[in-house]
Amino acid sequence: ALLHIFLCLLLPARQELALSSFSPEEPSTIIQFTHTSNAQMYSLLKRTAAKCSHISHVYSIGRSTEGRDLLVIEFSDNPGRHELLEPEIKLVGNMHGNEVLGRQLLIYLAQYLCSEYVLGNERIQTIVNTTRIHLLASMNPDGYEDTCSMWTNGRTNAQNLDLNRNFPDLTSVYYRNRRSRHYLIVMCPRVLQVAPETYAVMKWVRSLPFVQSASLHGGELVVSYPFDFSRHPQEERIFSPTPDEQIFKQLARTYADSHATMSNNDTERCGASFYRTRGIINGALWYSFAGGMSDFNYLHTNCFEITVELGCDKFPSEVELYPEWKRNKESLLSFLESVHRGVKGVVRDKDGNGIKGATVSVRGIRKDVTTGKDGDFWRLLNPGTHIISATAKGYSRVTKRVHIPHSMSKAGRVDYILEKGGDIERQEKPWWWNYFAQSGVTPPNWLLRHI
Ligand SMILES: *[C@@H]1O[C@H](CO)[C@@H](O)[C@H](O)[C@H]1NC(C)=O
Ligand SMILES: *[C@@H]1O[C@H](CO)[C@@H](O)[C@H](O)[C@H]1NC(C)=O
Ligand SMILES: [Zn+2]
C-alpha cells in the first residue's frame, strides 16, 4: 500500500515532464506508460479525440457521486452515430477504484487506435471502419481518487457502494421464472441504493445496441463469464451457466488465449488455480455474488459481457505498465474483432421499413435478442447449424436455417421480412404482472421511469 501512495503523490510532476515533450498537433505513436490521474485522463482522452476527430469523439454518460465525469471515448468511421448493421462494443475499466490496470490499458488503447489508424495500420483501420468502439476508462473516478489519498482503499464509490453489487439482481428473477425471456427493471431503492455511477451505466447500456462488452478488473488472472450469481447461492462453487454458455466460453477464450500468460498452466496465480480450464471460469463457479454488471447486461440487454481479471496486482507499479500493455494488447484487439461473429441482419416489414423491437430467437437457446431502432440485430453464435426465427408484435414469425462455417471471419447476414398479422402470438405476461394485478396494491412509485 505504501508503494501505491508514494506513486500517486509522485505522479503529477513526472507526468508534466512527459507531456511537455508531447506535441498535440502531429500524430505520434508515443504512449507514456505512466499512471494517469483523473485530470490527466480527461485531458488525454479529449486531446486524443481531437487529434483523431475523423474517427473519434468523447462524451460523458453522467457524473460520479462527487461530480466527476464518466467520460467515454468512442472510435468509429462515423463517430457520434449508430450505423445500420455496425456492431457496438464497449470496454469498461476501473469499476473498482483501486483496480487501475484496466483503466490504464484503455487509455493506452485509445491512443494506440488513434495513432495507428492515422499511420495506416490496416488491421486497426479495419476494426475502426467496421465497428463502433466505446471505452469507459474509469467507471469509478471517485474511488480512484480515494485509492490515491490513503483514506480508504478505493474499491467502492464515494457512497461506499461496491458498483459490481449495485445493479438490479435480475438473475434471481431468472432462476425463479425460467419461462420468461425478457427482464424489465423493477427495483426498489429502499432495498437497493442505486449509485449515480451505476445509474449512468444502466442508462448507457440501454441507449445503444451493444453486442459485446468487457469489464476490466484486477486481483486475479482469469476471465470469468456470467452468471456471476449462483443458482444455489447457499452453496459454494456452483456452476451456473447462461443459456449462452458456449458463446461465453468462446468469448472468454478469445481474451485468455491471446494474452501472454493468462491461459498458461504454469502461471503463478494469485491464490486460486485456473489451469484446468486454461484461464477462464464461470463466475458463480468461482464465487457467487448478486447485483453484478455482467448478469445485468446479459439479462436486461442484448449485450454479452465478460469480466477480465488482469493480474494479481490491483495497482501495479509504473514499470509494470508497459509490459502489461504488451501482454494484453493482442487480447484487446482480438476481443474487438470477435464482435463480428455469428449472424447479423435487418428485420423489415413488406414495405422495407425496419421493425424496432422485433425478437430474434435461436432454437435451443433460451435468450432472445431484440432489434434496434432501424430493425438491425446481431446474434453472437458459434459455428454450426442454427434455426433462427424473427417475430414482432402484430407480425408473423419467419424461421430460417443458418449454417455458420468454422472459417467465418465476418458475421453472416440473415435478413427477415415479416408479414403483418399472420398468426399473432399470445403475448406472455411479464413476470411482474401479478404483482401489479393484485387488488389493493397501490402501484409502486419506484419504477425507474427515466431510464
Ligand atoms: C477505412 O476507411 C477509410 C475512410 O473511408 C479509408 O480511407 C480506408 O482505406 C479504410 N481502411 C481499410 C483498411 O478498410
Ligand atoms: C502443462 O502443459 C504441459 C504442455 O502442454 C503439459 O505437458 C503439462 O502436463 C501440463 N501441466 C499440468 C499441471 O497440467
Ligand atoms: Zn474488481
TrEMBL record:
The residues covered by the Peptidase M14 domain are: 34-339
What keywords does the record list, in alphabetical order? Carboxypeptidase, Glycoprotein, Hydrolase, Metal-binding, Metalloprotease, Protease, Signal, Zinc
Q: Which Pfam families match?
A: CarboxypepD_reg, Peptidase_M14
- Superkingdom of source: Eukaryota
Q: Mention one GO molecular function.
A: zinc ion binding
Q: Which cofactor does it need?
A: Zn(2+)
Active-site annotation: E309
- Supply the Gene3D superfamilies for this chain: Carboxypeptidase-like, regulatory domain, Zn peptidases
Q: Identify this protein by name.
A: Carboxypeptidase Z
